[in-house]
Amino acid sequence: MERIIFHIDVNSAYLSWTALELLKENPEGPDIRTIPAIVGGDRTTRHGIVLAKSQIAKKQYGIRTAEPIAQALRKCPSLTIVPPNHALYAKRSRELMDFLRTITPDLEQVSIDECFLDFTGIAHLYPSPLEAAAYIRRTVRERLGFTVNVGISSSRVLAKMASDFEKPDKTHTLWPREIREKLWPLPIDQLFMAGHSSVAVLKKLEIRTIGDLARSDPQLISLHLKSHGRMLWEYANGLDETPVASEPADLKGVGNSVTLSSDVTSALEAKKILRRLAEKVAGRLRADNKCAFGICVEIKYSDFTRVSHQTQLTAPTQTSETIYRTACQLFDALWSQAPIRLLGIRTGKLTDPDTPVQLSLFDLQAPKSQKEKKLDEALDKIRSRYGKDSIRRGF
What we know:
- Pfam families: IMS (PF00817), IMS_C (PF11799).
- Keywords: Cytoplasm, DNA damage, DNA repair, DNA replication, DNA-binding, DNA-directed DNA polymerase, Magnesium, Metal-binding, Mutator protein, Nucleotidyltransferase, Transferase.
- It catalyses: DNA(n) + a 2'-deoxyribonucleoside 5'-triphosphate = DNA(n+1) + diphosphate.
- It is found in: Cytoplasm.
- Belongs to the DNA polymerase type-Y family.
- By secondary structure, the protein is an alpha+beta fold.
- The chain contains 13 helices and twelve strands.
- A hairpin with a 4-residue loop joins strand 10 (291-301) and strand 11 (306-317).
- The longest helix has 21 residues, at 267-287.
- The radius of gyration is 22 Å and the shape is globular.
- It starts with a strand and ends in a 9-residue tail after the last helix.
């Protein structure tokens, strides 16, 4: 039976939730969703970044998420700027997830404003997935006051890509049979997990669209982008067997973060910090005799805005190098170029090292992983004897 996966994504979450609260406080006031407006930063100091923008701010003035407030004001001097309210956003997020869990407990929340649902087991309760999606959108709009997009497919990555199609308040499908028509014509930078550095490499290989990548030799892509390139090639072909993980145990993991004495503004410095964090996280995993399937990178900017990005590996790991490489890929896809106050790496979906796993048919990393494992073991022995700071990898 073909899986049916829903991806639910709140349309302009911070802006929508802020607008509803402002209208609740002042029903006669303007709806910031209908005027040039953003959430984020500080108008007086012109510091911070854009966390969310109205459709008018985006379409008429070209304002983008994560761009500096000063730059947004140059584009639209009359821009309405509203500070974020993270306590409110957490509350509205809980309301949404509580409603969705009344539909199915097979729900995995991946950020404050998006989640996956495994619809397969309850499909027989609805006339069709499209009608179920329409019910979800209508109920959220009428009961909670904001709108969501719903992407439907047989895999997580395709459902995620589908939900990013035309907005707001839309349902889109992206079944494997629709990939050539709907997915392949899109620019390569619209592929999920294709960050700035990966896109730059792919464009040098004359890969301009997702279809170009899908039709490329996967070994060539892996040669240039290692395991991340293999993952992007699989995503371009709609290959993703990752399950919707709804068990609370999946949220447990090992992590480490550091608040920086001064803001970091370069990728090189950030990746030096990620190297040290990866060493610490991997060391704790080995000490606990655990491996991790999931890796997440967290950034807190100088305006105290927090963002994160996560991915799931094809095989669990406890090696420093694998965690570091994956963290760098996530960082490249996430960082807005704004000054960084805090960096963190978290791992999740823990398993025992001897738990059997099914490797990808194309997984070429096993020999390298064994070398990394032996290196980690040697470093652990040195640190155990001479102290944790006695030896450190070069950047």
